[in-house]
Every structure is written in C-alpha cells, then in structure tokens.
Design a protein that fits this description.
Blueprint (H helix, E strand, L loop, with lengths): L1 H35 L13 H12 L7 H11 L16 H14 L7 H13 L28 H13 L7 H11 L13 H4 L29 H13 L7 H12 L14 H15 L4 E2 L5 E2 L1 H11 L19 H15 L3
Antiparallel strand pairs: 1-2
C-alpha cells in the first residue's frame, strides 16, 4: 500500500512539474512571437542571425509547429545569410562558424520532411572545413587540433567545439563521424584530467576532473587560474565537455566521464553557474539540461549521496526567474545575457528537456 501511495505521489509531482513547465513555455512562446520577433522574422538582428536560429530551435523544441508562420519567417530570415560554400552568416562575419553551427540546429529541427537536406549537407561541410586540423597547420598532438572557434581566425574553444558536435549530431552524424572524433581530441584536452587523452601540463596544476574554456594558445579559463597557475574548472564548461564526450561515443565507465561526473557531483547547483556565479547562467542551464539528459537517468547523485530529481529542480529554478511578460533575462549581462530573446531561448531549450516523458 505504501509503495502504491508513493508511486501515485511521484506521478502527481511529475504532473505538477509538467503543468508548471507547460505554463512557463506558453508564456515564453507568446513573448518571443509577439514581442521578440521582428516583422522580417528575425530575433535581435542587430547581432546577426545566431539568436534567430536559437529562438527558432527553442520554439520548435517546445512545441511550436515547424510549419507555423513564425517559424517559417524565422527560417526564411536565416536563409538570407546562406552562401554557396554552405556558410550561414553575414558577409565578413568574425563568428561564421558559430552562426552556421547554430543555424544547422535550427534547420535540423525544422527538417522532418527533408526540405533542408541539401542545405544541411553544405552547412555541415562548411563547419567541418573550419575545424582546426592539418589544413590549419595543426597535428593530432597539437592543443588546438580538432577544436572549433568562432570563425576561421579565432582560436578554438570548448564552447564552440561543443556546438560543432551538437550541430553535426542534430543533422544526422553519429559518433563515428571523423569530425566528431577529431573534436573529441580537443574536448579531452580541455579537461583537468591527466591521462592518455591529455598529456598537456594544465591538469598537473589542477587535477580536479572539471573542464575549462580552451587548452589552445597557451590555455585559458573564464574562471581564472589557481594559485599554482592551473586553469580553474567551472560548471558550464564541464557540462559542455561531458555532453560532447557522450555525443562522441565515450561511455559512462570511461575515466573522463567519471571524473567529469564526480566534479559536477561536488558542485551540483542550479542557483548559480558553479565557478562563475551568475555569469552565463542561462547558457549553463541549457547546457546542463542537455548533458544530464544525455547522461541518462531520472536523478543525479551529488557528492553527499543525495539523489536529485534534476529535471524538477532545474525547471523550478528556471521558472522562478521568469519575468511577468514571459521572458527571461540575466541581471548579469555578460555574454549577451541581458538580451531577453537570447536568454528566453536558452530557458526554453532547458525546459524542453525538463519535462517528464
């Protein structure tokens, strides 16, 4: 009898969580469509097409029909930036790789009928061509090898590399795609873990298993350095690294996945982006949701042995931050999180994965 009561209580809790999520999604959708989207189909066009691509993806992932007028307008706007070489970006863009990778995800989300197959193939070839490989003068042992940056001249970093992997996966590539396996080399070198996959000097100074921004060009962490000169790990990059490894076929029993999971267990929190405070908070939310979903399981055990219903906890934290008009915005505007179109899109991408199936 007790087991039955607990089961019904759990089902009721899940239903209440889903109801709250659905309500938040409905308000956010209304905000984006009625206030965020311009007549030309764009969102925050002053910064290029990337936020439009994120908004389109977020809307479709949370239930807006791919053939709805607002999505069709958004896709039409994105395709104004399509080039013959497959890139989807403004002319002379300094962030062409980032913009095209995000556009790939939007097109893939709207491609149930195969309308965008040819465009996706060309766009995938474009971003693969920007990956740091032998053509860029790198060798497989180089810190930059396999990584992706904002554009051809920008050094590679874990954030853009994780978007590259996600874009390739969204458009049909599996872990055996050579570009994803090359990217895995870079991802592994972005982790504070010594081993066969990472022989760089950084982990020896901070061997905590978390991830940082880039091992390239001398290495950098947005969270700064340790007193010993190590690169500090932080949560958004650790979730990005974990997600990327799983998408690249690395298994849960691999030391790299274990170390990342242990770091996240020690720093489990949705009230902040551990290691960065409120900087990049909503980027962190969508990255955490994608990573925990990829990791599998309905709960996540922290370092104290407490099991967390991560979906319910993350959803509750996000919903508590929603503005009366349905949008989200970060009071810390770093990395453009003062833009409600961007932040609302991040929040929707996270909430899409918080719903109980």
């Amino acid at each position: 009898m007790l087991a039955t009561m607990l089961l019904f209580a759990d089902q009721s809790l899940s239903a209440n969580t889903n109801d709250s999520i659905n309500s938040a999604i409905a308000k956010a959708t209304a905000f984006l469509v009625e206030q965020g989207q311009a007549d030309d189909g764009s969102f925050s066009s002053q910064v290029g097409p990337a936020i439009t691509a994120l908004a389109v993806t977020a809307l479709v992932e949370t239930g807006t029909a791919a053939d709805s007028p607002e999505i069709a307008k958004g896709i039409d706007y994105l395709l104004r930036f399509a080039h013959n070489d497959g890139g989807i970006h403004p002319p002379d863009s300094a962030v062409a790789n980032y913009e095209t990778a995000i556009a790939i995800m939007a097109l893939a989300a709207c491609n149930k009928t195969g309308t965008h197959d040819e465009r996706l193939l060309k766009a995938k070839a474009f971003v693969k061509g920007l990956q740091w490989t032998e053509e860029e003068g790198e060798t497989p042992s180089s810190p930059a090898y396999g990584g992706a940056g904002y554009g051809r001249k920008k050094r590679p970093d874990l954030s853009n590399t994780s978007f590259l992997i996600e874009a390739l996966r969204a458009s049909g590539s599996g872990p055996d795609d050579p570009a994803i396996q090359r990217a895995l080399l870079f991802v592994s070198r972005s982790q504070n873990l010594e081993g066969p996959a990472n022989t760089l000097p950084f982990p020896t100074k901070n061997p905590d298993g978390g991830f940082y921004y880039t091992p390239a060009a001398g290495g950098e962490s947005q969270a700064g350095t340790t007193p010993t000169g190590g690169l500090r790990s932080y949560a958004s990059m650790t979730y990005a690294g974990l997600k990327s490894m799983i998408f690249a076929g690395v298994t849960k029993d691999d030391p790299r996945v274990k170390a990342a999971t242990e770091w996240l267990a020690k720093h489990y929190s949705f009230t902040e982006n551990p290691g960065m405070g409120d900087s990049g908070l909503f980027y962190y939310y969508q990255t955490a949701a994608k990573s925990l979903s990829a990791l599998g399981g309905d709960s996540f055990r922290d370092a104290d042995g407490i099991e967390h219903d991560w979906r319910a906890e993350l959803a509750a934290e996000i919903i508590s931050r929603q503005q009366p008009d349905g949008s989200w915005v970060n009071s810390n505007a770093r990395w453009m999180e003062g833009d409600p179109n961007l932040v609302t899109s991040y929040a929707l991408l996270a909430l899409a994965l918080c719903k109980e199936k």
